[in-house]
Specification:
- The structure is a single chain.
- With 99 residues, the chain is an alpha+beta fold.
- The chain has one domain: Alpha-Beta Plaits.
- The chain has three helices and six strands.
- Strands 1-2-6-3 form a four-stranded antiparallel beta sheet.
- Strand 4 and strand 5 form a beta hairpin.
- The longest helix is centred in the middle third of the chain and has 11 residues.
């Protein structure tokens, strides 16, 4: 397994209608490094976002989609998505506050 630092774990937030419904419940969705674990994701969120305390982390592996361009076929890259629940006394994550 690769040596992943906490700042390499979270790649970008997922901003969709479905993921935005959970912001009121302090439930945030991120795309994360494919080899990261739940404990690494928890550590990364708590270190990167000051005042955030993680209650629970769910992860899911997303396979690449089949794509075709003319006769040539291929696959897009694999991805991993993490849904992070914060505790009730935790501060909100600021990057989602303006959405």
């Amino acid at each position: 397994m690769a040596d992943i630092k906490y700042y390499d774990v979270i790649l970008k937030p997922v901003v969709t209608e479905k993921s935005m419904e959970g912001y009121a419940d302090k439930k945030y969705t991120f795309l994360v490094h494919t080899e990261s674990t739940k404990s690494q994701i928890k550590e990364a969120v708590e270190k990167m976002f000051e005042g955030a305390k993680v209650k629970k982390v769910n992860t899911m592996n997303l396979d690449g989609k089949n794509k075709r361009r003319g006769v040539v076929t291929g696959k897009t890259a694999k991805a991993k998505k993490a849904i992070v629940w914060l505790t009730e006394d935790s501060k909100d994550i600021e990057i989602f506050s303006g959405l």
